[in-house]
Design a protein that fits this description.
It is built from 9 helices and 4 strands. The chain has 230 residues and is of the alpha+beta class. Strand 3 and strand 4 form a beta hairpin. The radius of gyration is 24 Å and the shape is globular.
Length: 230
Amino acid sequence: SKQDENTPRTRKNEQDQELTPPKKEWEFNLETTRDIQSHLLQKTQRATPVLTAYLEPPQFDIESKRPPPKPQPMRKGDPSHLQAHQYPQVSTCSTLPHHYPVNNPLELNDVYKNVNNRQSNYDIRFEYAKYCPVDADPFLPWIHDVFPSFDGKFVDFVAQNRRRCNTNLDRFTMDLKSLEPQVALMQPVPIKRVNTEEEEQLVKEIWNGDGDGDDDKVSLTEEDKEIASS
């Protein structure tokens, strides 16, 4: 009825619809892509960003006979403590399944065995990070399979639990201990959306380690903030 059209509830709904922009589906734009690639070529001499893994130092010594603390302590590191490993071989969607840093190259199978492996990776985990970073930082997801669509618009990533690869307790005891965080990555985790002000306060509390948030105790560059918010 005409009276219903002028009720406060109806007018409020109409106002909400005017204020809420319609959701726009992402569309591939060739010109935008070319502009981005041109900018990257000038800045980095390659048309795509370099895939980079940032490894965090271990939170506690797993070789110690003392059991790890539960729950684990708050991280107190900052971006300067992260060790970066780059994988420039990942450059196009068509070669993602072959070049993604999941395992070592086939030509090194005699050195790092993927099949019938009888040697622990624990002692060489940081050396092996140039092929796969997960052994060195088990909090990183092990992206085991990558499936790009034919047109390059979509990429499906399949993560698996690397701790399930080598499970012989006699040979891989230290590997199994080190890779325990992989189990946590396979569990659902609630996420709270925070605004910029809350984000900066949380960063100060975590990196200071004392929670007082004094500006003179932490100095964040724009790169630090970008890493922290990613």
